[in-house]
Each structure stands twice: as structure tokens, then as C-alpha cells.
Amino acid sequence: MIQEHLEQQNNIPLNIGITGESGSGKSTFVNAFRGVDNRDGKAAPTSCVETTSDVTPYPHPNYPNVTLWDLPGIGTTRFPADKYLQHVGFEKFDFFFIISADRFRENDVKLALEIQRMKKKFYFVRSKIDHNLRNAERSQREFNTEITLTQIRENCIQGLQKQGVESPQVFLVSSFELHLHDFRLLQETLERELPAHKRKALLCALPNISRGIINKKKEVLQSTVKYYASLSAFVESAPMPGFTVIIADLSIAFKAIKMYQVTFGLDSESLQNFALSAGVSVADLRAVMTSPAAAIEINKDLVTNVIYYSSGQTLITAAEEAYRFIPRFGIPEAMSLPFITTHNVLSISLSMLAEDAQRVFTRALALNTSV
């Protein structure tokens, strides 16, 4: 039952439709949301002209249950708005992003009204707000970033309302600098409006664009520790020579720590992509990491070292969790030791990786002189 629960939670599908007129920056937004640089082999192809002619899925590189679907620009399809949704397979999407580079046009509004009629969620995204701000700064004598952003947002909302869109939600983002402007507000809105069982999939897949997201990821992962610890308590294994505190099944810790690493973007591939997009070196980011599980290949030797390290740490919190959780399953008291050990190993690994993710984020902001 525990294994089935974990597998089910880790495979909840989340399908996101990305649409808009040709040249609006859909593909760049798809890549940014997935934490993939435009130059990466896994990236959606980008160009100043329309590059999407079919419905194209782009699974998240670490969470394949989360898929962003790059849809053909509505201005390029042979179908009107109502037929367009049938053409792209409307039913499978949890929500839509309607992307625009500057203002939302007639085709965007027609599509929004059709999605609204079918009672699905949709969000308007101005994806090139960095360009808009630069243009405004060049043309205004007394330029103010916040005033300009407010004016752009209000102008978009009023224009959409005049055309019949009810309570439009407009977010101003830069696909190249997600940590700026409205992306954090967009993330919070999605968390609030998504069904509860979809929120974990969203949070784990989001790029680390704020300290708040990193903290929320840690909370989500911490809630699973007791389940992995219970699996360990159930598994029969021989004691590990040289250890007074043992873990029942090394593969359980291996799987969990690997998941923590990729969720925080601290595996080698994710770290490389982050360094590339932030314009900093991987070496600079590695220099601030302290966890033995950060930016290296997770293997059983590494997990054994982590167990050895954590054996000297306090077990009080894990023990309290054990005695709260174990009685629900009728686990004999003798099985509490593997539970406590695994709980301790995973909690310490999770905390160290979360702290490293915070350090990497802070270091990248400090080194990126454009911020």
C-alpha cells in the first residue's frame, strides 16, 4: 500500500497547453518553465518566425509526468477558435497559458472566450516584458519600472474585459529572467487554483526562481520521508558490518536522495542548464555547495557515506515521527530502528540539499551583473 501510494503520487499527470499567436515566445517560455536552455538538445526549437506547426509535447526532463504542450500559433491554423481546441485535444489539458509578446489580439481573445465557455483555467502571459521595459525606458523622460509594469498590466486587463473576457488574469514575465516580475505571482496563483493532488507535481517541476519555491519543495519532499522510512521498516535485510545504526534497504534511500537531488536542480545536467541560463560558471555554483549528494552521480557508496555521516546526528525527531506513524500499520516495535534510521538519513540529506539549493540561487544572483 505504501509503495503504491508513493508511485501514484510521483506519477500524477499535469498537462499544460501553451498557445498564442506566431512569434509570441511560446517555445522560449516552454523551455524556461522546464529549466532548459534554448540551446539545449531537449529544448523546444525557437525562432523569430513560427516554428510550431503541430501539437508538440515537451516532458519535464526530471518529471516526465509534467508535460508542456507547445501548440500551433492560433493565427497560423486553418481552424477557428472553437475548432482549434478540438484540433489540439482540448480535454487533456489541466490549464492553458495564452502567450503574447506585446498586446493580446483578436485571436487570443477568441481562444480565451472558447476556453472560458468550456470552463477550463487559462492565464494570459506577456512573455517579453524585458523588451517592453527597455523600449519604454528609451522613450520616456521619467521612467519608472513599477509604474510602467502597472500601466501595462492594467491596460491588458481593461482591453480583455472590453472584449468579453471575465476577470482576466495577466502576468508579466521575462522568459530569460523568471525570478523577476510576475512569475512568482503566477506560480502562487497556480498553486492556489490547481486541485490539491496536482500541486506537488507543479511544485517539483518548477525551476528554482525564488527562495520561497525552494522552501515549498522541501516541505513537499519532507512529507514523503515517513513513507520511505516505513518501507525500510518492512524490508528484511541483514545488518551492515561496521554500523551500529543500519538502514533496512539501501535502495530505498538511494531512490529518495536521487529524487531530492533532481527536484532541487542539483544534479549535474540541471546545474549545467541553470549556470548557462544565469550566465555564470558551474564551478562558481559548485563552490558554495556542501552536501555530499550535490552535483555528483548518486550511487550506493555515496548513500552509505551519508548513512555514516547521519549516524552521529540526533535521532529525536525521527523517533517521535516513528512512534506517531508506525502504530497505524501495526508494525512491531522492533522494526522501529530501520524506520528511525531511514527517516534520519533522508531528513538530513533533504535539509542539506535544500540549503545547497538556496546557496546556489543566492550565488547565481550575486554573480549575474544584469540583475
TrEMBL record:
Stored Pfam families: IIGP
InterPro entries in the record: G_IRG_dom, Immunity-related_GTPase-like, IRG, P-loop_NTPase
Domain IRG-type G: 12-193
One cellular-component annotation, GO: membrane
Top-level taxon of the source organism: Eukaryota
GO molecular function: GTP binding; hydrolase activity
Entry keyword set: GTP-binding, Hydrolase, Nucleotide-binding
Keyword Ribosomal protein: no
Family that this chain belongs to: Belongs to the TRAFAC class dynamin-like GTPase superfamily. IRG family.
Name of the protein in question: Interferon-inducible GTPase 5-like
Lineage: Eukaryota, Metazoa, Chordata, Craniata, Vertebrata
